[in-house]
Design brief:
The structure is a homodimer.
Chain A (H helix, E strand, L loop, with lengths): L5 H13 L9 H10 L6 E5 L12 E2 L9 E2 L3 E4 L9 E8 L13 E5 L11 E4 L3 E4 L2 E4 L9 E2 L10 E3 L7 H9 L4 E5 L3 E7 L3 E2 L10 E2 L2 H11 L3 E4 L7 H8 L7 E6 L7 H8 L3 E6 L3 E2 L4 E6 L2 E6 L3 H19 L10 E5 L10 E10 L5 E5 L8 H6 L2 E5 L11 E6 L6
Parallel strand pairs in A: 5-6, 13-16, 13-17, 14-15, 17-21, 19-23, 22-24
Antiparallel strand pairs in A: 1-12, 2-11, 3-10, 4-6, 4-7, 5-9, 8-9, 18-20, 20-21, 22-26, 23-24, 23-25, 25-26
Amino acid sequence: MTDGGFGSKLVEFTREYARMPQSAMITVDEARTRILAGLHPMPAEIVALANAWNRVTAEPVLARLTQPPSDVSAMDGYALRAIDGGLRAALRVIGAAPAGHPFEGAVGTGQTVRLFTGSVVPAGADAILLQEDAERLGDTVVVTEAVVAGRHIRRAGQDFSKGDAVIAAGRRITARDVGLAAAANHPWLSVHRKPRVAILATGDEIAMPGEPIPSGGIVSSNSHALAALVRAMGGEPTVLPVAKDTTEAIAAVADQAGGFDLLVTTGGASVGDHDLVLSGLRTRGLVVDFWQVAMRPGKPLLFGQMGSVPVLGLPGNPVSAMVCAALFLLPALALMQGLPAGPPPTVSAILGAPVKANDRRADHLRATVTVDERGRVVVTPFPVQDSAMLRRLASADALVLRAPHAPALPAGAEVTVIRLDTSGI
Amino acid sequence: MTDGGFGSKLVEFTREYARMPQSAMITVDEARTRILAGLHPMPAEIVALANAWNRVTAEPVLARLTQPPSDVSAMDGYALRAIDGGLRAALRVIGAAPAGHPFEGAVGTGQTVRLFTGSVVPAGADAILLQEDAERLGDTVVVTEAVVAGRHIRRAGQDFSKGDAVIAAGRRITARDVGLAAAANHPWLSVHRKPRVAILATGDEIAMPGEPIPSGGIVSSNSHALAALVRAMGGEPTVLPVAKDTTEAIAAVADQAGGFDLLVTTGGASVGDHDLVLSGLRTRGLVVDFWQVAMRPGKPLLFGQMGSVPVLGLPGNPVSAMVCAALFLLPALALMQGLPAGPPPTVSAILGAPVKANDRRADHLRATVTVDERGRVVVTPFPVQDSAMLRRLASADALVLRAPHAPALPAGAEVTVIRLDTSGI
């Protein structure tokens, strides 16, 4: 038996590594900074307000009207002149102004108009008599609690005025923002286009779920998890066909990545990470930054540019792939959508168990989250952190960030974590 | 001028209220419990794995295979018999087993097989010699660090075994779960159907964004905000046409709600909340619980059943509508999707400013969130809490929960909050 051709690929792989002395290991932050520097926000597109939720505004949303447009009543009651609203005063009801049906006349001396919450305050009136402070008998109303001029009146423009930027640019649109944009009279919004992300998995051993599994093979999981992550983060994923482990096959699939905003690759793990991916994409013009990142789980990370398409190469190991995706792909997708560029959001938490001193690689401990009796977030790393355990990754609520050379910490110490349980990833 | 017919509606409205003495005011928790008791989880449907993200599993996902399916190498290196792996031992390389290409023979005495991460450990071998602990010269490998039997071998089933419930029922599917379900060989998943929610807004004064606004009118915002909230929470919203303020018009639009899983109404605010909605839906068989909930912002809440369709009536005020939606509609949608029923998720936070003692109505103060130098979440309520200020609601990061009769609290005190900024609502 022979190496079956893998020896020569190993040589190529080893040569790549030889160019990367251990001193070339860069930090997670540096890798992220270099990735973000190679990306740019997507241009704008117009979407219907009904489709704008969770998109990112490409420009400020300026109010097209003033809200409320006129002075309106904040309560159910009666509009009158404040001077007429002393205790036991009697007023004549000359009309009603339900919301949407403003009273067209003016309120004169001794007169009043029935109002409801949101009703326009009629001309002449400068006070509101609350319903519960009024005795009504036919067309007459008697004041049982003296009014105060201006009270219970919402002034025109109290919420916003025409021209106000009610939503800033670069904001992910919430349900409340949708309501606000509607109130500001916007049926359409200008948002950043969703980044279209092509996902390329490689490997002779990979089968799609439900399809025949070759001997020694496994079912593809990375592509599907990454596609879901891209969707969760507001991108538009496309899963390319699985490429076999040859330079030619990978190059052929890479040809389908033209026009995408980002190509994400995983694996090529048969003879180490990225070797075949690298040689395959190089035949299509890939210009590459090829790093070792001082992190765990995680292996060499590939970032580069293939023609106009940025390429992010993730490890083939499913746990490493998802952790690297959280650290690098998530910020990439944020930047491409017009959100501020930077590390993924972190929170402070309390260790539920001691952790050992760390070595020179930043660690990302998979952990469960509980809340203690004081309402504090407690993170407890799993005792075994094997990067092949996808089931354990799926059950993790958080990644505990351990800096290179971080000292041992006792239970109760404060640590910084990335929450997975509240992020959809 | 006359009441234009509103006098009679006011009488009807007042009569409704008369049936509700102040003692009938119920708590937020009781209202929520009664709403949840009137709802049930949606039945299951089958979706493609690629569409399963953020859906809720209707049954446990059982692994269809064992992962890894055989003992595999955790590292790049060589498979051998442990007894052959002493320091300076020389072994003959008889083949290679890249992932997906298992070595078909057996490893005999003095023999070794080239392996890579994920490669199946060949028959006969019980140890892995790491690549960095091996000197290779042609077809010979020399051991530079003695091996340990079993080390660097991932055992069959280490991640999961065939039949294991790798994802529980009633779980919202994350990107990691999608990867796990794929690895467990599931191309389809059984999930709870999305609740189809019809949204009915009423009001003569309401215009759709971009359409002509009647005199004294405002632009519809509630329907759009609620539709986005339903979508954010995993439901399928349908915005019904805006009904004019007549019993007949409301009844006619309500006829379109048959077959939906929930009808959500807002407003009817021209003569107080719910009166016209109530009389309109009653002509279509609405059986109603009609409450005053001891809360602010918020007004009487309607819950009932119209034929087979549960009906949740929210206030017409946009801020009240969204706060009530967070408190009642969000848990309703969770239950209908098969998630555990209960109040919306809360977290503990530190007050950034003092708050006054509360009265008998639970308050929900709109607040900003910052993180202090100790990493604690600090919430600072807006000084003005006017329930008509949609712009302010949109800029709120959290609702600070204030129980009925809660005492005044100084800055620095702990409070319970609902985070809005991380929820998509």
